[in-house]
Amino acid sequence: MRGRQTGGEALADGLLRWNVDTVFGLPGVHLDHFFDALYGRRDRIRLYHTRHEQGAAYMAFGYAAATGRPGVFTVVPGPGLLNSGAALATAYACSAPVLCLTTTVSWPMVDRQYGALHEIPDQSGLLRGLTKWSARVEHPAAVPEYLDEAFRQMTGGRPRPVALELPPEVLGQVAPMPDGRAGAVASPAPDEDLIEEAAKRLARAKSPVIVVGGGAQHAGEAVRRLAEAVQAPVISRLMGRGILSSRHDLSLPACAAGDVWKNADVVVGIGTRLQQLREWGADDELAVVRIDLDPAEMHRVKAPTVGIVADAADATAALADRLRGIEVTVRSNYAAVKAAFREEIAKTLAPQMAWLEALRAAMPDDGVIVEDLTQVSYGARVDFPVYTPRSYLSSGYQGTLGCGFATALGAQAALPGRKVVAICGDGGFMYNVQELATAAQHGLGVVALVFNDGYFGNVRVIQKRWYGERYIGATLENPDFCALARSFGVQAERITEPRELPDALERAFASAAAAVIEIPFDIDDMPWVWDYLIPRRLRP
Fold this sequence. Notes:
The protein has 3 domains: about 5-175, Thiamin diphosphate (ThDP)-binding fold, Pyr/PP domains (Rossmann fold, 3-Layer(aba) Sandwich), CATH 3.40.50.970; about 190-330, TPP-binding domain (Rossmann fold, 3-Layer(aba) Sandwich); about 350-530, 3-Layer(aba) Sandwich (Rossmann fold). Strand 15 (about 370), helix 16 and strand 16 (about 390-395) form a beta-alpha-beta unit. It is about 40% helix and about 15% strand. By secondary structure, it is an alpha/beta fold.
């Protein structure tokens, strides 16, 4: 037993037990006891308080996405929790370990519909729909047990967000506290027979291909060894960028992999939902090997030929070991395929790629790019070279407009020595523009590139292309972004040409403080990027 503590103190000590040193959040009356406990531990837990609950939750997501470690945020119940919902949904889509700590209305009023402050119907049901696991703690002495289970659920198997509801009375009451136990959850060992079967199929393959996703971010070395052993190209869309450096001859942008997929006889999916099976097509000539911690993913699209439920690094390393020294009879020049593709998009997507080439040239190899949803970011999805894991952050299939800047702040909080740049549009940037205050107050040196076209740009290009230029709801009235940034104490400048970007970034990085670089452009001059991004059937 730990002696007598409030539930809030037990919660804070439990976070320390799990090596959490950073919490994002906003205070409120329901959380007072927890924040008071954080005050007593402020030398060991840093609190980043934001200007909106959405910003806090996205920062926790950015922290988790950039590191693989749990990102923790705390918000009041009801409207505070609802404000954080888009970020929780994003963390779920991106398999990010995020812990939401929230409360309920006053305990005697829970589920009574009295109209208590911040009450919403079935808050627990809401959390169940947004998380992998959630629970409500009903006694302060139960806090250590429930917190330990939350971490086990969040980090065991497929990582995804979890949530705890802690009524204010539970946080404030004093009780004898049992000891909690922190400890990593062991992953299942790869089945040796399945590894052997997968190795035999790859050894016979004429045109193998490897697809990696976010679940393989920690498996880069094993992926490289496997790819080199069988001379298979490694492709990814968003979550797997940088697992194999874009400099490697076998690293191939997904948008350049059409012919590869058409001709493949074995595909190895590692830590990925492998939606190519559904979108690009799969026939009886394509053997499917899957490596994933989540057994539910195995049969979601197509039953695999070989399905290995295991940690991506462990299983991929075991497979690479079995194939060491294999004699490869068929080799393709994927470096030439990649070079030809880049030459093509330099012409067809010239405006987007000019900015992206300038950005890549100005960023260190381990610099972190966070994409929001804007035309230049869509160009980055087509091909932006990424050299290290967890250095290209995205909202994945959730596509949450406005996530970029606050997510980048969380990544910067997690990685204070790294350069972090958010690619934003004017529409999305305004979703969390208030977090400029958070960047300034907490010394977070994120650089926001704000591409300002005066529209919700993608809405405009779709209405132009598909709806006969019947424009509605797309035009924006924007502030002077540079003046707005300076009013928060954030440096800002405006540039108009890609050649100006490297110097502007150098000035921003030199200050180590937050910066906004506004880039005006004409959306109608941007080429249609979706021919590369909209999936198309490649096999029957």
